[in-house]
Amino acid sequence: xxxxxxxMGASGVGKDTLLDEARRRHPEWLVAHRYxxxxxxxxxxxxxxxxxxxxxxxxxxxxxxxxQAHGLSYGLGVELEAWxxxxxxxxxxxxxxxxxxxxxxxxxxxxxxxxxxxEALLRQRLVSRGRETPDVIEARLLRHRQLAASxxxxxxxDNTGTPQTSLEGLSQLLEAGGSA
Length: 180
What we know:
Elements (H helix, E strand, L loop, with lengths): L2 E6 L6 H11 L4 E2 L2 E3 L9 E3 L2 H9 L3 E7 L2 E6 L1 H7 L3 E5 L5 H8 L3 E7 L2 H11 L4 H17 L4 E4 L4 H13 L5
Helix pairs in contact: 1-7, 5-6
């Protein structure tokens, strides 16, 4: 059965690491890239676009979902629908902001999953990556708490341990049909 595994979680929680692990261990799963209006980092599966490139793709209907966050534009390509139409399991790095649109567009295909980790670990990961100021880190941690509180019905994967352990949790969730 086709499923769109829609991963959400705070910056630094390890969504990209989990997606990389899924790509290595489950080549039959399709890990979609995101389009974003900044250059991609080495640890993420995204395609950097200029604002003009993003606008053209959005205007011509090449995104099945798009959203704004942290001053950037993000999009997921329409290829997701083709993959789902062939009974694929598709994993994406999504956003809580676009979750209502994802629910409308993908209906029963959608499996929203909140990736979590303890706040102290998130802080450590954010500090070590060196991209954010202390104030920005604290704001991200606040959003992490708000995100978890706003989605009590969404299945959760604890990403505290190894990527393999988190991926096993995700596999079990898929086998159970998505029930938490």
